[in-house]
């Protein structure tokens, strides 16, 4: 079917398309929707029936079996980036807006409620994770500290409240996400990098950021660790060596590993990157996940 999305931000090259894809743990893929515009960052609803994704600064939903795309009413928020998570009960979507703040929006659509705080100095929120009980959000903040740009991991109550800093590093950090038992936050960081951009996967205590452990150590640039609901596997995005940050339009890998970093293997390879799997997209059964590829004609 044909569906026209709002155009905002990056555009696809002539002949390029977005492919919303479901892959199982054996690497079998099913493309459930294609678009001539950029669509990004699918989330799987807790009931297993729906995928939520971003396009042109807006949110949309589609049945996991494919079918009709529907816009989600986000009120006055028209410039959402691709960092959004669903509450464990499926009633709320937490979103990141380009105004730098976090909001809660009813899954059915409706008036947004701001969650984040106003700061005296530049502080831009980018959401990535939610605790298993739905009480706490994990995010990274872009700050200007002592004249330098820093990106660190924080948490905040999902109902609003004080920000809690978990990392205080000068090197970039991103993609924080809770383990299903709530004990750990997994994230990617250049903490151990010997050259700019060489991000790897780490985990730390979810309460205070202590006990940092490095889980990957290879030539790839590794981003966005997402834990399966059954806590048995992590999927993450691997860029070619030398990649800086997490750009679009690269030959990338989806890789799997155990929660302690063992048993690494490639699940899929394709043309993608930014927007492919920025947020957790595991199915509730832990047997499938969703991603977006951006093949050229």
TrEMBL record:
Source taxon at top rank: Bacteria
A UniProt-annotated Pfam family: PD40
Entry's family note: Belongs to the TolB family.
Protein name: PD40 domain-containing protein
Natural source organism: Devosia sediminis
